[in-house]
Amino acid sequence: MVAYIIRRVIVGVLMLVAxxxxxxxxxxxxxxxxxxxxxxxxxxPDRIAETREALGYPDPALPPIDKAAATVKVWGGFxxxxxxxxxxxxxEELRKAAPDLVTECPAPxxxxxxxxxxxxxxxxxxxxxxxxxIAMVAIVIWMVFGILFGVLAAVTKGSLVxxxxxxxxxxxxxxxxxxxxxxxxxxxxxxxxxxxAPGYVPIAEGGVWQWFVQLILxxxxxxxxxxxxxxxxxxxxVLESLxxxxxxxxxxxxxxxxxxxxxxxxxxxLTPLVTMAGLDFASVLGGAIITESVFNYYGLGKLAVTANxxxxxxxxxxxxxxxxxxVIIANIIVDILYAFIDPRVxxx
Length: 348
Hints:
Layout lengths: L1 H27 L7 H4 L5 H11 L8 H21 L1 E3 L3 H6 L5 E3 L6 E2 L4 E2 H36 L4 H15 L2 H15 L11 H40 L2 H8 L4 H31 L1 H6 L5 H10 L3 H29 L7
Antiparallel strand pairs: 1-2, 3-4
Helix pairs in contact: 1-4, 1-14, 6-7, 6-9, 6-11, 6-14, 7-9, 8-9, 9-11, 11-14, 13-14
């Protein structure tokens, strides 16, 4: 078991390094002037040059070979920041000339936003708790009810209950996220007052219950969209498991229906569901811009849109790297969970 986890972690670390190289290469090895998109809109040429020096970005006028070498240097500086942190401006002469303007970016440093005069870490630290909180509430809702309704549909295959559950989830899935969010906000929260007006309340300020209540509506908005897929997948996998020989063997030994269903059939169906959950959770963290906008939550999705609008390249790069890392980390966690759900994968 330990050897299996170590192998997965090593592979994950290598994937993180490779992913960072690809992202840095895409943003900085192109002919586009990266400093221009890090300085902000309507930035004068002298300010662009200062930004290039402060952030250590390559000059677009360099020959391709020299620019490739400069891009590798940018990548090396980024890895250094992730491991041990960095100081901005990265140019040592600029730091000596203006020591009062030096900004410390502790590890893991994801960059410095020249446009907002703050580190990318600080921006993400402000937005990430909101996105993580919404995603946590959403995944609990869609996993619990998605698996519950999926099992219900499977055990009542062909009945009105089965058709009603599958049909209802498909109808909800057909509605766009902004419609569901606006409907819940305008009627459930505003008109009927069943939930308080939207607004993120940290656990340290309002407690767990207040934190949870404020996140039910945005979490349910996301959960409704994802839940349809989990109902259908759970139904399909449970039906497939129930037709296997080992299920018939378990029944022939006298095991009762609920024990066969939950201990054997559902356990076998959990493996692909865990894969879906890990990837969906990572995607929700940075892709819930519509839900965050409807309920006026400033999370990672809204931060990404704002950074793109304001030509804040360091923030965009930092977010892309962070969200890519979350997908890889989610895959590592899923692989480890596989070993607990199905011990056969430990020898793979």
